[in-house]
Amino acid sequence: MFKKRIAAVAAGLFACHALSAIAADKQVEVMHWWTSGGEAKALGVLKDNLKQRGYSWKDSPIAGGGGEAARTVLRARIASNNPPDAVQMLGFSVLDYAEQDLLTNLDSIAKKGDWDKQVPAPLQRFSKADGHWYGVPIDVHSDNWIWANKKIFDELKLTPPQTFEELVADADKIRKAGYIPLAHGGQAWQEATIFDSAVMSAGGPKFYNEALIKLDPKALGSKTMEKAFDQLRALRGMVDPNFPGRDWNLATSMVINGKAAMQIMGDWAKGEFASAGKKPGVDFLCMRYPGTQGNFIFVTDQFATFKAGNERQAGQYAFAEAVMDPKVQAQFNQIKGSVPARLDVPADGFDECGQKSMADMRTALKNGTMVGSFAHGQAMPEASKTAVYDVVTHFFNSNQSSGDAVKSLVTAVQNSK
Ligand code: GAL
Q: Name one GO cellular component term (predicted).
């Protein structure tokens, strides 16, 4: 009897211990750089869904748009053999870490969720290595957008500029009326973001592909590329003197508050308008950067999961399923400003900018012109990207001529290969 009681107590203790061990394990650490108002709100959708699946969220935010700071922290965590369970990644990063055999293979979850069929092929290029799934795409942003303050546009009787020349003329009117034409944040990735649009506008999708994806020296050194730098020079003339170092979301606030008329930025900017309670078509306008109408320069945020023991892997699987849950994809992207990374999510529920983006993506998919963003690491490998960043940001912040910029572009790319 006594023995039995002891055994029962011991069993109870063991159960208790096991329970607390499970509680500790039932947590997924997620590293990301979504710290702005709109970004954080969108992330809440994913957090809630993970909770419903029985896992708590350990938040590891590393502030800094574009993710440069997060990538540095990640490298340090990997070096000390302590990577987070799930990490936000862009472009070639997933493939690089998969090649180093550091990531959890997600094939079984992908099969269950029909990812092969539902995820657009240009995204899969950054999710799969050697035919296996390692990256889970949560969104499809595009960055060839202008976000405009509608009140200023109405007051000055401006309509969305259709050509770059029209944009220049509009900027002139805006400045004369006492507003800053272009809200800009002087950080390398933001200058690179503008450059994406300038290259597309100057040469179209085929040229963009030759130059920024294939890195063809002829395209990189061409007159068309010079025109892209000319656009950048004109845009430099539209910003206020306090632009250096400014965060992207503070630049968005300038448009929201009516200090500035426009911002050229990916559609995560829309998340800031929305989180400030602003409505498209009423308070702000979304328009494609002139000369890029109907084109789609994509930025897809993906999560990769780092190899861990079996218990942690279960959490990673739950996390991957949460990311790809069609309901999460709908709600998350409606808040974030992007469009779903699965093709089976309906367009209703998205605002007019979101619906336009979905339509542009489908057209670009059909025409084979959906191209990855250089600025956000989905056009060229990291080493070349860094080299081109330097050229672009040096040009933007100096008086260099477009001709000289093109020459240093060709050399920089060549040396980076
Ligand atoms: C991008 C990322 C977006 C985003 C932006 C600003 O790199 O793809 O999702 O929110 O940075 O943080």
A: periplasmic space
